[in-house]
């Protein structure tokens, strides 16, 4: 089992930046693809960014160029750096781990991997 806990959310003005963190406990996620999803009020949960167990990454078009996902396997941490934030980025952001290990990403799919583990989320609010 992998337990995930997000932090780093908060209230920020449009154009500002945040770095979200995801701390894993239980077993290591070294072999898991990892990612971030978000859910805005009244909207479905959507994919934001993913990073493979080898370090490759992909992003949703809505955040591409403004966000960077990274991981530190030695610390069991995943990060999402978000810059140039917009009010439409307001959502609860969830960290997720692939349900299997050593898999690849489906770069053309809406969700590049199948999440098997979820954090409880951290709120990001971007004011105009």
Comma- or semicolon-separated keywords:
single chain; 128 residues; mainly beta; seven-stranded mixed beta sheet; four-stranded antiparallel beta sheet
- Estimate what percentage of residues fall within beta strands: over 45%
The residue-averaged pLDDT reads 96
Biggest beta sheet attributes = 7 strands, mixed
**Structural class per helix/strand content?**
mainly beta
- How large is the radius of gyration? 14 Å
Query: Which H/E pattern describes the elements?
Result: EEEEEEEEEEE
Instruction: Report the total helices.
Output: 0
Count of DSSP E strands? 11
Span of the ends, CA to CA: 40 Å
Low-confidence parts, pLDDT < 50 over ≥5 residues? none
Q: Which range best describes the helical content: under 10%, 10-25%, 25-40%, 40-55%, 55-70% or over 70%?
A: under 10%
Shape: globular
Descriptive notes:
This protein has 128 residues and is mostly beta strands. It has no helices and eleven strands. The model has no long low-confidence stretch (mean pLDDT 96).
Draw up the topology in text:
Layout: E1 2-7, E2 10-13, E3 18-26, E4 34-39, E5 46-51, E6 57-59, E7 67-72, E8 77-82, E9 91-98, E10 115-118, E11 122-127
Parallel strand pairs: 2-11
Antiparallel strand pairs: 1-3, 3-8, 4-5, 4-9, 5-6, 7-8, 9-10, 9-11
């Amino acid at each position: 089992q992998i337990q995930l806990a997000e932090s780093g959310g908060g209230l920020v003005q449009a154009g500002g930046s945040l770095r979200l963190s995801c701390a894993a406990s239980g077993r290591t996620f070294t072999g898991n693809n990892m990612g971030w999803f978000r859910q805005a009020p009244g909207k479905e949960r959507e994919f934001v960014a993913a990073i493979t167990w080898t370090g490759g990454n992909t992003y949703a078009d809505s955040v591409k160029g403004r966000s960077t996902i990274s991981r530190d396997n030695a610390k069991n941490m995943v990060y999402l750096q978000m810059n140039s934030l917009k009010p439409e980025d307001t959502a609860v952001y969830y960290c997720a781990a692939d349900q299997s290990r050593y898999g690849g990403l489906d770069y053309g799919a809406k969700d590049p991997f199948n999440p098997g583990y979820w954090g409880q989320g951290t709120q990001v609010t971007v004011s105009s």
